[in-house]
Each structure stands twice: as C-alpha cells, then as structure tokens.
Amino acid sequence: MKKYVLGCFLLISLEANAQFSDTTAHHLKLSAAGSVNKTNTENAYLLNNALTFGIQRKSIVFNSTNTWLYGKQNSKLSNNDFSSTLNFNLYKTLPHFYYWGLLNYNTSYSLKINHQVLAGLGIAYNIVDRENAYLNVSNGVLYDKSNLLSNEIYDTYRNSFRIQYRFTIKELVVFEGGNFLQSSFEREGDHIIRLSNSIGIKLRKWISLNTTLNYNKMNITDRENLNITYGITLDKYF
C-alpha cells in the first residue's frame, strides 16, 4: 500500500487554489462523493462530503472547511471521520509569498482519534501562480493536543510541510490536491501523513465530476486509511 500511495503522490502531486480577483470576494465549494461495493457475500459503502467557504478582504483571505467521511463494511463501521478547519492567509510582503495561520479539529474512528486540535502559524510561497496552473509549498509549526481512543492524552509540537497544487487543462480537466507531512519535534517516529488528490472533469464552469484519492497515516496510533471515491463538486467564486 505504501508504494501505491507514494506512486500516486509522485504522479499527481505537482494544486492550485483557483484565484480570487478584484471582482470576486467569496468562494463556495461543495463536494459529495462515495463508493459502493456489493457482492453475494460482501457489501461496503463509503460517503465522503466536504464544504469550503472563503472570504477575501484586501490582503487577507479567510477559509473554513468541513469534511466528513463515513463508511461501513458488512454492516460494521469502518469510517466515521470528521475534520473542521479555520485558516487565514496574509499577503503583506513579497510577491507570491504569504503568512498563514490555522486551527484544525479532528475526530476519527479509522485512525483511533477521540479528539485532536492542531493550531499554528507558518509561511508559504507560490512557485507557480497562474490562472490555469498553481503550485505552492508551505512550512510552519503546529501545536498538537490529542486524545486517542486508547485513552492516551498527549501534546507535541509538529513541523508541518505542505505541497498544494491545481492544474487546469483546456478549462476541462482539473488536477488538484493538498499533501501534508507533519512530524513531531519531540517524539521520534511520530508522523502524520495526509494526502488528498483529485481529478475533475468540468460539466460546466462551476460543476464537475471528480475522482478523489485520500490517504491518512498516524504513527502514534499505528493506523492508516486509503479511500478512493467518485462524485460531484460545485465550485463557485462570486
């Protein structure tokens, strides 16, 4: 599985956030996806939903994102994973460079997390920043306060490195994703890996059909999940 995930990451990990402009100050994105597998003896389903809302004010952008992944296999719960994120980007210095801040809450049945709060600050740089091509790298420090299903409660500081991209081909096909490596400064071998990459085919300017690959690994609980879902995305700037 690790080789498969790494291969997918290298193949499509080149996003780009679609752009705000002088005439667009709000961004709304809704994704609804899932997968179903049923045979004579086996049945499984997975639902993957996400809602993002962003606001631009002069040199600052605020975003909120909520995701919920729910699934069962042979009537047994496999996923009940929720994540809520608030973040801002502050554009006040060099071109293509900005500061970011983040507050993130997670609870995950599949990764054995009761509650997790991540909060931190960092810097980011747009290596490519065009209407149809965007590639961004960022780095920062997060404080992690976690309560695990094993009843272990711990906190640590993490380095958070991210690659984010979005590439559009002939205004029809969109490759996008955000990929994180978050390593503890204090606990050797304590890593969090989050990969989310998708391919979308636009039916209209703001409607597309999507295939999304999500991979998450948390070393402290020795848990990982890999999900591929198919669905529809509504993405509107106004």
Distance between the terminal alpha carbons, to the nearest Å? 41 Å
Could you say what the CATH topology is called? Porin
Q: Any idea what the CATH superfamily is called?
A: monomeric porin ompg
Order of helices and strands: HEEEEEEEEEEEE
Q: CATH first level: which class?
A: Mainly Beta
Question: What's the CATH architecture?
Answer: Beta Barrel
Helix content: under 10%
pLDDT averaged over residues: 90
In short:
The chain is 5% helix and 73% strand. The chain has one helix and twelve strands, in the order H-E-E-E-E-E-E-E-E-E-E-E-E.
Any overview of this molecule?
The chain is globular. The protein has a single domain, classed as Beta Barrel (Porin). The protein has one helix and twelve strands; from the N terminus they run αββββββββββββ. Strand 11 (207-218) and strand 12 (223-237) form a beta hairpin. Helix content is 5%, strand content 73%. It is mainly beta and 238 residues long. The model is unreliable at 1-18 (pLDDT under 50). The chain has a twelve-stranded antiparallel β-barrel with strand order 1-2-3-4-5-6-7-8-9-10-11-12. The chain starts with a helix and ends with a strand.
